Amino acid sequence: MKEVITAICANFIKAHQANQLDGFAPLLSKDAVLIRFGRGTVTGHDVILNYLNNMSVYHRTQTVDYSIVDMPFWDMPVVRIHVHNEGLLFVAFRVVDDHITHIIFTPEPCDNYICFNSLELPPFDMQYIKEGVTEDMEPKEHHYPCMKCGLPSEKMRWHRFFTHSDSIHEYGGLLSVCPNCGCETEFYANMRLRMK
Q1: Helix, strand or coil for residue 71?
Q2: N or C, fewer C-beta in 10 Å, the chain?
């Protein structure tokens, strides 16, 4: 699967740089969903292509660097887009039967103040999660879907969670678990605690 997603990432970069989405269009499923992390969704093949086209037109007026990087949390490659003077954007793809079902746009996953990048770490195991959950939370829309089954974020189980190790710093935030697959789908750390 990594080879397929790497090829999709390369195709996306080539199409985006040239503002020629014809080669990328057949990879999108008819009911594909583009998730703009924390902001909204764009649904449907043609609507997504129009959105990507507009984004490509804008990026052609900016200084932009593209690369493919590994994202350990999802155990797959993603596109890294660096728009100078604006920041980083990561683009992940969920693929089923060689077609893209989800495109996820996520901002730079490392908050400079919190200094914890959950996307650069493998997911926590379920026992570790159970030990760190302090309360259940309301579901969040427009966050990461389950990359295994595609369940949207608003159907996940959400928790207030704190890391617990022998580190000087521990981190707290929101964590979601897919009820279908029994796996962590997101840990959004929004606080850092000094323990020693």
Answers
A1: strand
A2: C
